[in-house]
Amino acid sequence: MKEEIKAWRHAFKIDPAKSFSESWLADICESGTDAIIVGGSEGITIDNVTECLAAVRRFSVPCVLEVTELEALTPGFDAYFIPVVLNAHNPAFISGLHQQALKAHGQLLETEEVLGEGYCILNRNSSAARRTNADAAMDMDDIVAFSRFSENVLQMPIFYLEYSGTYGNEEVVKKVSETLEHAQLFYGGGIRNSQQAAQMAVWADTVVVGNAIYENKEEALDTVKAVKEANR
C-alpha cells in the first residue's frame, strides 16, 4: 500500500462527523479520485468512523484513516496516517497522543499500513489550529525548516501543508516542493474549484479536497480531472 500511496495525485477527505447520503458518497468514491481519507478535527467517534468505513468499503477506492482520536481507531482501513503536528504548542499532538495510540493499539498499528505525516497547520482560525494550539503565523523560512526537519530528521514519508478551510499561499507550496527531496508533499485547504486544484497540483504531489465536497459537490468532482491533468 505504501508504494501505491506514492502515486496518489488526488484525494477526497470525508469528515465522519458529517452526514451523507448513499448517492452523494457514490459520486465521491466513483469520481476517479485516488483515495478517500477519513478524518476530521471535532466530533470523531468510533461509531461514525466505523459507519464511514463500512459505507466506503462498498466501492473499490482505497480508504485511509487519519488518526486524530484514539477512541476512533478501528481495523479495516487500507492504511493509517498518523499526523505529527510540528508547529503545535500542545505536545500531545507532537508525540503524546501517538505514544498513547501505540500503547493502546500497538498490535493493530504494527500489523497494518502506518505512515507518519509531518503536519503544519497554517490557518490560525481553524478548529485544528485551536485544538492543537498551533503556531499558524509562521513565515516561509519557518515552514521550510519544518519540512526539512520532517523529512531529514523524523524521516516522515509525508509532509502535509494544512490550510484547513482557507486557500493557501502558492509560493509557500512551491518553496516546500522545491525543498523536499523524498517526502511526498500533501496540500489541503480551501480548494473549491478546479482552477485552484490545478494551481496547487503543479507543486504538491497530492492534493486533498475536503470542505468543497459538502459545499459544492459538482465543483469538487471537477477537481479530480484538474489535478490529474496538471503538469507536475
UniProtKB/TrEMBL annotation:
A molecular-function term among this protein's GO annotations: magnesium ion binding
Residue stretches spanning the membrane: none
E.C. number(s) listed in UniProt: 2.5.1.n9
Matches recorded under CDD domains: PcrB_like
EC class of the enzyme, as a word: transferase
Keywords, sorted A to Z: Lipid biosynthesis, Lipid metabolism, Magnesium, Metal-binding, Phospholipid biosynthesis, Phospholipid metabolism, Transferase
PANTHER family named among the record's database cross-references: HEPTAPRENYLGLYCERYL PHOSPHATE SYNTHASE, PTHR40029
Quaternary structure and interacting proteins, as annotated: Homodimer.
Full protein name: Heptaprenylglyceryl phosphate synthase
Organism of derivation: Geomicrobium halophilum
